[in-house]
Structure formats: structure tokens, C-alpha cells
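Lab notes, practical 5.
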Amino acid sequence: EVVPGGPAEAKGLQAGDVILSIDRKAVSQPSDVVAAIRKAHEGGAKSVLLFVSRDGNERFEAVPLATS
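Output from the prediction step:
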């Protein structure tokens, strides 16, 4: 899921993209993604580095963290 108008969408991420790692730490399920982003927020990070797969193509993408 990608939040419409959010930072991930602005960076070109799409629903169906598979996040393989966040800040070079592997994630294997949606709860890992949520936990890693929450931890980055708590640590004061302004962005995270995602390693994403789409249709067999993999890439890194720096994505700013949304502020609430």
C-alpha cells in the first residue's frame, strides 16, 4: 500500500512494490516495515533508504519520512 500524496508516492513507489530492506536491514513481512519506519522516526531520522523490487527490477530509493 502506498499513501496517496505521501513521500513514497512522490518518490515513485507503487502498490505492489516489494520492500526488501530498510536502511540496509532486511525485512520480510509488512510488520517489519512498520517497525523499521517507527524505529527510524523515534531515532530522529528524516528519511529511510529502501531497497525495492518491482517486476524483477531492484533499486535503492531514499524516502523522506512523513511528519505528523
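Observations recorded by the TA: The chain has a mean pLDDT of 93. The longest strand covers residues 47-54.
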